[in-house]
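FIELD: query
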Amino acid sequence: NNAQDNSGNEHHGILFGNASVKPDSGRKNGGVMLDGDGYYVQIPSFDRNLTGITITAWINGKSTGKSTGIILSRDPTQTIGINYKEGTGEIGYHWNNNSASTWNYATKLDIPVDQWSFVALSIEKEKSTLYVSNSSGLSNSINSIKHSTQLSDSAWRIGSDSFTADRYFNGTIDEVLIFDRGLMQEEVRGLYDYSL
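FIELD: result
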């Protein structure tokens, strides 16, 4: 059982637990269905240094009660990716050798429950920008701090954070894209507009 990488880069995902991809489960095609209890998709590490990154996805979450990875690569010192923050339903991110200046940054971008939302993270050297779509359109939050080069040498998880045994996403994730550079706001908006 796997989740196909349609980019041509052969980063196909392996489904764990009872994670499933069904043709009618996604926003457009087949999204991965996760139950918040041990289900996730794993994709290979990039095995290279990243000076920036952009991660986008469409998500439809059932609850926001606990911290969880949305798309995350974690090792003891260099965690990279997008996450839910515990108890708030707010989107967050990890970078800078797992620094609290990233994962503790208050984005004030809440992810709606039980509806499809576009989420994105763009890391550049001098800032990060997180995006969430809601009924008003696409909102963003900018963390204007320096972002160091990160080594991506751990597998990526879609719908899970391996930090503890209970950090699993409950809902559906679709249309995951990962770029090895920080996209500018116009480019992210273009991806969002194109996927509507």
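FIELD: remark
The mean pLDDT is 90.
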